[in-house]
Amino acid sequence: MAAAAAALLAAAAALLAPGSPWAHGQDAWGAGRRAAPPRGRMDQALLLVHNALPAEGLRLSALSAACYQCSPQLLAFIPASNGSSRRASTAAVAVDTQHPLTLQLDGFSENRALCKIHYHFGESGNYSLEVKIQSGSTQTVSCDLSVNEDPINSYLPILFAFLVYTGILALVIAGHLLMKIDPVRNWVCKRLNPRETERVINSEPGSPNRVDSPSSDLSCQRLWSSVPRQRLRSLDTFRGLSLIIMVFVNYGGGKYWFFKHESWNGLTVADLVFPWFVFIMGTSVSLSLSSMLRRGSSKKKVLLKILWRSFLLILLGIVVVNPNYCLGPLSWDNLRIPGVLQRLGFTYLVVAALQLPFSGTAAENVPEMPPPALQDILPYWPQWVFLLTLEAIWLCLTFLLPVPGCPRGYLGPGGIGDFGKYPNCTGGAAGYIDRLLLGEKHIYQHPSSSVLYQTKMPYDPEGILGTINSAVMAFLGLQAGKIILLYKDQHKQIMSRFFIWSIVMGIISAALTKCSKNEGFIPINKNLWSISYVTTLSCFAFILLLLIYYLVDVKRLWSGAPFFYPGMNSILVYIGHEVFQNYFPFKWKMQDSQSHAEHLIQNLTATTLWVLISYVLYRKRIFWKI
């Protein structure tokens, strides 16, 4: 029995090692139930399947609840039990714990379905599934699932991190309140004796130029007293919030599934931030162009600046921030052409060039009387015609373009999705256009659909077709900027318009998706940057901007810290976190790479460091402008 137990544990350990999807055929009924689980992999549990059927081998399959229109996937074969010794045969199987599973057991010899079990396994748990003939029956099969060793609570590190950061926030707030007391502030300021430094070398693309007094934040007394602010801190705060979440999820997000991009349709935390960044870039474009023209810059000069910024963003994305560096020295053979900065560059070029002819016009002047409901739309009707034309192009290409081997208008992931009918159709027209125009080796090789849907085709979430809808997203952000300019200092009007736009975007999203994850006309999909994805994230963005604007710029209950500081240096933080992500102190060798806690500590530490770096740069008046 001891030898059998050792054999089972060895099989289970091999099973949970990389590249070993299953191990099977260990004849160790009693030992398997009493053995402690081996150290498992993240987001996996150990399932011991005991087949007590004397003349029936079993085929174990599993289907994840997150896999839409997928067929169950084979996990293991379990041979028939040893009839002479009355021992059950046992197989050790690794099962996923991120989403609920449907386990299906079929008879191997007679090809009959025996039972189905719906269950959500816990990480590092040890489970037994006993398959046997019910007592008193010769035909009825029972499948009983039991827990041998309780799973761990993998979400406790998130709770602990939340409490730690909440405690830090409470201390900061308490310190800020103390500094409002004159004797305390005077005592601290005398000892700090801050040195005035002014080195402004930067601002993020599309951001309005700073108009604050240069010394407003350099004086200790003024720092802790209420000073007039002309710059909208809410925009930088929103940008910084999006950026910091982006940095966190790019670093791994503790390896939790909800901090990773959705496999195909739907939303996770990681799917929110890039569209918000694009949205606030559009908002800043409206304000910055208006500011530059008011200072006397000609539209020709501003256009040249727009072209130069777009070129630099695209160049930085291709040469500096390129994920294919991990494949070896960068060369044309493996160069990824699309990317985040490339998309930002093209999007910025479109919306800034589109807005430039309308900047500095009378439409931006504050009206004496409350304007009609469409005054922030009608003066810009040529922009809307251009935008709707772009969207018509996206719709026509997506739903009408013939794609070899795929149905027209296909929006699925391919692979095992759609019951495996279209394995090479990942992304439909969007994927086909990228592979045709850019080549398979010049787009992203490991899309988020590859794990759950087992797709084999490369697919780029920042591809050509999706860039059209990113321009739509930025244009909706541009609309928020127009509202701020049109209703300058009329806070109620600005917030009410934000709310109305949020409702309109929400209604459009509900109509397109039928309030469903997968069953709508156009599902929410980050990989495709579907129009429903854009309208949904715009709905959220208008609401979030409304709240931040109210707290930061209207009531001044919040300074925007700590998100305000990275928002002021967004390009530097983004490029820096990509370039230095594999260097200490942003990354170090972990003792247990299969621990959510260690990954979370590392990722939060790296993200916090970038917040601190951006704060120091802000205090030194150092910004990076392109």
Word description of this protein:
There is one protein chain. With about 625 residues, the chain is of the alpha+beta class. The protein has two domains: about 1-150, Sandwich (Immunoglobulin-like); about 195-620, no CATH class. It contains 18 helices and eight strands. The chain has a four-stranded mixed sheet. A hairpin with a 7-residue loop joins strand 7 and strand 8. Helix 6 (about 235-250) runs parallel beside helix 17 (about 570-580). About 40% of the residues are buried.
* Spans where pLDDT lies below 50 across 5 or more residues: 1-39, 194-218, 362-370
Distance between the termini: 70 Å
Order of helices and strands: HHEEEEEEEEHHHHHHHHHHHHHHHH
- Describe the largest sheet: 4 strands, mixed
Mean pLDDT level: 83
Q: Give the tally of β-strands.
A: 8
Specify the helix fraction band. Answer: 40-55%
Count helical runs: 18
Radius of gyration, CA atoms, in whole angstroms: 29 Å
Domain tally: 2
Structural class computed from helices and strand pairing: alpha+beta
Largest beta sheet: strand ordering: 4-1-7-8
**Coarse shape:** globular
* Strand coverage percent: 5-15%
Oligomerization status of the protein chains:
single chain
